[in-house]
Amino acid sequence: MKVSDLIVKSLEAEGVKYIFGLPGEETEDLLFSIANSSIVFVPARHEQGAAFMADVWGRLTGKAGVCLATLGPGATNLITGLADAHLDKSPVVAITAQGSMERLHKESHQAIDIVNMFKPIVKWNTQISHPEITAEAVRKAFKLAEMEKPGVTHIEVPEDIAKMEVKAIPLEPMRVRRSAPEYKAIQKAAELLKSAKRPLIIAGNGAIRKLASKHLREFVTKTHIPVVSTFMGKGAVSDKDEHSLFSVGLKMKDYVMCAIDAADVIITIGYDVAEYDPENWNHKKDKKIIHIDFSPAEVYEYYQPAIELVCDISGALWELNNAVEQEKNAFTFTNWALPVRKLILADFATYSLEDGKPFTIPGALQIIRECMHDEDILLSDVGSHKMWIARNYPSYSPNTVIVSNGLASMGIALPGGLAAKLVHPERRIVAACGDGGFLMNSQEIETAKRMGIGYTIIVFNDNNYGLITWKQEAHTGKSFGTALTNPDFKLYAESFGIKGYSPNTLDELKQNLQEAISSQELCIVEIKVNPSKNQELNKKLAQKVCPILSL
Predict the structure, then answer these.
(1) pLDDT at site 219
(2) Are 386 and 460 in contact (CB under 8 A)?
(3) Separation CA 265–CA 306 (nearest Å)
């Protein structure tokens, strides 16, 4: 068989169902090998969109999403999506073409050093320089991409190598068992926890993967320790649980910081420093930290754990749950931060929309949440709406609120919604965008339409790069370079042959959102929003009073 055939058969052996990408001259052999396989090729409209689709597929499934691009500009267009997957810890395998080996030693049309260019944003990458290494390269790419912590790997396929004959078969994927916690570290963590007066959990990106969320919820139920999630840890513990203090992540000191400031021992679970700088919550460097993660803690003066459990997260929580069962009284804490939860909930209630008043993002989010079931998925693009989604939009299950907060790349939600619907066709999917991020990858509406994939795209329109304005005005009292103009989003939707909504009254907003989301058809809902709540939140939090926290 040809090398391209062996690559595709190896992808089939890995369980690949979809490849997101763009065709190119140098991928011709690969494309026709895919055409003769069980794998569905999804032709996207931009390589960045294809990479975001693979990113979200990987994040939701734990299995590597696959994206394909040709050489030169095709490969460079993948970079943003791959960098996003790299910092968000999503398993992705990228495949790019390259010119024939005989022309790579000199300046040549579209030829650039893709392997070295990708090195900073991948766990591993290689060029298939000889037919006999093909099966090993594909197996290694998937093994490393899916191994904790997940990330990006990359394979480059020169066009002349793709045509060559090879006598080989795919390597069988083998399950890799993850490391168990070291018993002395478990004992030390248990002893430190028993000495705590106000312990608190920060659940990060890793807490929503594998069995971690299940065992975390058991741990919280048994110990009554309050939980704060990062933006990417939303849903690790249900926000319906009275121990949930919702999310942390705003640069300003939100109400949740009342609890974090009062905590004496903090257990971080699957926490990535890239998600939220620990200087924001450990600025005095006085917190006793128990670090539970697949990887050692980053060396950082504001994040120096007293104990590190470097192992399978669910395994560590399993052992801690066993320790609690054996000595229940020593680990039973009062839900000491409940007054903070009540304060947060009271604040959320103040954002309800009123007839005749302008729409706001937090007010609209309340209506969207009412239209969604617990297991439905909301994907947040990046902008001021991301901050409100992370802060005010409750999540009840892992991986039901997808926020890019490692790279925090605009443009992810719309193509990501397509991938989310492929993973969970039975669920309602909402891609929440700002007007800025929407137009970065709105061309993928055509991809979704062509494939018959239905989900709701919401555009929060303030004619502005609103998050930057929010920050500029907070720092200087004015903004510059952020004002935008926009198309008619309803007509824009109709130009793709899909339904568009642009409500003007509260009743219309409620009716349009209910109809759009429940229909599970591809559509756009424009919500014209007044951004005044952004600066109001700054002023409110500057005057906040923390509740009395008693043991």
Answers:
(1) 95
(2) no
(3) 10
Quickly tell me which residue has 């395994």 as its tokens: 315
Q: Which CATH number fits domain 3-163: 3.90.1150.10, 3.40.50.300, 3.40.50.970, 3.40.50.1370?
A: 3.40.50.970
Residue 544 pLDDT exceeds 80: no
pLDDT band at residue 110 under the 50/70/90 scheme: low
**In which region does residue 224 sit, left (phi positive, over 0), alpha (psi from -120 to 50) or beta (all else)?**
left
As a whole number of angstroms, the distance between CA 18 and CA 12 comes to: 10
Pick the closest to residue 69 from 123, 120, 117 (CA basis): 117
Structure token pair of residue 335: 């839900």
Single-letter amino acid code for the residue at 196: A
CATH class of 350-539: alpha beta
Q: Which two tokens stand for residue 370?
A: 């009412």
Tallying the residues shown for the chain, one arrives at: 551
| CA dihedral of 492, 497, 498, 501, whole degrees rounded to 10 | 40
Closest CA to 21 of 63, 91, 82, 88: 82
Backbone Cα Rg of the chain: 24
How much is the pTM? 0.95
